[in-house]
Amino acid sequence: MTIEIDHITKRFGTFRALDDVSLDLPRGELVALLGPSGCGKTTLLRIIAGLENADTGRILLDGNDATDKHVRERHVGFVFQHYALFRHMSVFENVAFGLRVKPRKVRPAEAEIRRRVMELLDLVQLSWLKDRFPAQLSGGQRQRIALARALAVEPQVLLLDEPFGALDAKVRKELRRWLRRLHDELHISSIFVTHDQEEALEVADRIVLMNRGRIEQIGNPRQIYEEPSTSFAYSFIGNVNAFRGRVEGSNVRIGSDLLPHARTDLAEGEPVVAYARPHDTEIVSDGPEAAGVAARVNRVLTNGSVSRVELIANGPERDGAKDYFEVEVGAEELSRLGLANGQRVRLQSRRLSLFPDHQQGRSS
Amino acid sequence: MARVHRVLPGFGLSLGYTLAYLSLVILIPLSAVFIKTATMDFDRFWSVVTSDRVVASYKLSFGMSLLAAAINVVFGLLLAWSIVRYSFPGKKIIDALVDLPFALPTAVAGIALTALYAPNGWLGQLFEPLGIKIAFGPWGVLVALVFIGLPFVVRTVQPILEDFEVEFEEAATSLGASRWQTVRMVVFPAILPALLTGFALAFARAVGEYGSVIFIAGNIPYVSEITPLMIITRLEEFDYQGATAIASVMLIVSFVLLLLINLLQGWTARSNRRNA
User: Fold this and answer.
1) Do A76 and B174 touch (CB under 8 A)?
2) pLDDT by residue for chain B (276 residues), tens digit each?
3) Maximum distance among all Cα pairs of chain B, rounded to whole angstroms
4) Do A72 and B276 touch (CB under 8 A)?
């Protein structure tokens, strides 16, 4: 099913959960709605499902206006973070529920229900648990049963709200891979909500990055990671070093330090924030005329072939805390630099991304 | 003999304390009823407890108590549902009002209800032309028992409903269940044990109720006399044996009914959460 979200706005009291959100999703993709908590991603998912109503805007499913359609008529499968399995029903009855509540005319015969449920339990590889009750299952098993239950009604789209949020790290990783495989088998249009960037980057075909009720960036995982298009996207995805300063010619002035940049479209004196990934950041030795941001080595964490160097900014404190930087260096590079704790160095970047800094702009 | 190690200490102490307390507060006073009853010979006992007037009072007391508890289950559930699920102005006040039948002296409740439902009362005069007499008759008993039993159902169901996540209903709806199917197949099984507990409590309270009923029932022999009144009547005649005889019948019947309800409740709770 294609999903078209057309200028959706939703307020809770004075809080703007979704602010004029528009989004087109093609058929058959596994899409992640990614963002920090409170960014509106779950609200958007619930509006698509019909569990919540938008204040303004429309939802189109397969080109048909579904804005005023009831959840029951939308043919969506919804999977909840806390599974919402019916406690008084066995695993089998949970999965059969969607078939049993069908109107008498279209309800499959008992034998057919039995066949379909067993098929789904085989699909989630849990047919041996059919007579158990939800309380007797592990978290991962419960979520797989919840998924089987949602698939029983043959939904046109599968919506998953933080499906792995309540599970421990190892099970989460397994289920992630399993969900990806399942999607490759079924090709059902799916949207899942997550605040875990790793999860989104690993599983999704496409990521919708959200912040404060708005969409920041849409793209495949590679684009989201390597070409963040907004300041928020840069700081939310992956580790990043942020340098806040003002444009001064072909440099950014950060306190008394200068950091060269390649942008030509920025006004002189404009407050900017410059981002550099740890692996794109370089440590150079300190000197009176050296370019780069002055910092002091705090710790060197050696972990396999790549070491992480943690540094503290020399500049003044911001919000009562010193800025921390992180640089990834190879083993050879590390021995060449011969870093000692407390040593003064400078940081430069091979790849610096600049964004206007509204935060800084407001305060000055 | 292998020693049994318990993780939680104090099993002996707590069991001993429980039994001693239960004996002191419930078993000893109640056994006094049976001891006193035992001083009469069986023929007289039988003639007292099966006299027509007393039998009529059993029927009224237990019948109306069961009916009142059943009515309270329906409307108590609705009330609890409204309080838990919706927010509306005055909700806190309604929530507090529910407990009022607990606190009100039962005589006050009886007099107030009588004034309301008497043939010339506010509500009674509406029923009068229809030929329905509420106060001073069996239906008056029912009204009083419904009044005093309501909080028991509301207060037992309310916490269960509060704990019942909306997610379960959303899940059922998204799977295509109608509202009615959701309530019947998902919500109702979850609150059934609490409803049964509320029913048992409301019933038990109704059977023992005296103060409010006396004012509204009219106390017409064979028609609107409750069993507790029969006991009081015997006492006023200084027929202590007769009073305890009727009381012991009442105790036994109540105990059997409550035991049955508790067994049923335990069974539904178990089938609800097998090994949870």
Assistant:
1) yes
2) 556 677 777 888 889 999 999 999 988 888 888 898 888 888 999 998 899 999 999 999 999 999 999 999 999 999 999 999 888 898 889 989 998 888 889 889 999 999 999 888 888 888 888 888 888 888 999 999 999 999 999 999 999 999 888 899 999 999 999 999 999 999 999 899 899 999 999 999 999 899 899 999 888 888 889 999 999 999 999 998 899 999 999 999 999 988 988 888 888 777 665 444
3) 78
4) no
Residue B247 carries which side chain, given as an amino acid letter?
A
ipTM: 0.81
- For chains A and B, CB pairs below 8 A equal 74
Q: Do A149 and B175 touch (CB under 8 A)?
A: yes
Task: Report which of A344, A222, A227, A357 is spatially closest to residue A288, judged by C-alpha positions.
Answer: A344
Quick check: B171 and A80 CB within 8 A?
A: yes
- What CATH superfamily classification does B42-275 receive? MetI-like (1.10.3720.10)
- CB proximity B87 to A under 8 Å: no
Q: In chain A, which residues have their Cβ closer than 8 Å to the Cβ of B178?
A: 72, 101
Distance CA B9, CA A100 (A): 48
Residue A140 parent element (H or E): helix A139-151
Provide the chain B residues 239-258 that lie in CB contact (below 8 A) with chain A. none
Contact A87 B190 (CB under 8 A): yes
Q: Which two tokens stand for residue A71?
A: 């959840």
CA of A221: how far to CAs of A161, A207, A232, A274, in Å? 19, 6, 16, 22
**Residues on chain A bordering chain B, Cβ-to-Cβ distance under 8 angstroms:** 49, 51, 70-72, 76-78, 80, 82, 84, 86-88, 97-98, 101-102, 133, 135-136, 149-150, 152-153
Q: Kindly report the pTM of this predicted structure.
A: 0.79
Task: Indicate yes or no: CB of A88 within 8 angstroms of CB of B190.
Answer: yes
The string of DSSP letters for B171-229 reads HHHHTT--HHHHIIIIIHHHHHHHHHHHHHHHHHHHHH--HHHHHHH---TTTS--HHH
Helices (H), chain B: 11-22, 28-38, 42-49, 52-85, 91-98, 100-103, 106-117, 124-127, 138-163, 166-174, 179-182, 188-208, 211-217, 227-236, 240-272
Nearest-angstrom CA–CA distance, A323 and A340: 19
**What contacts B147, CB < 8 A, 6 or more positions away?**
B101, B109, B113, B212
Q: Where are the domains of chain B?
A: 1-38, 42-275
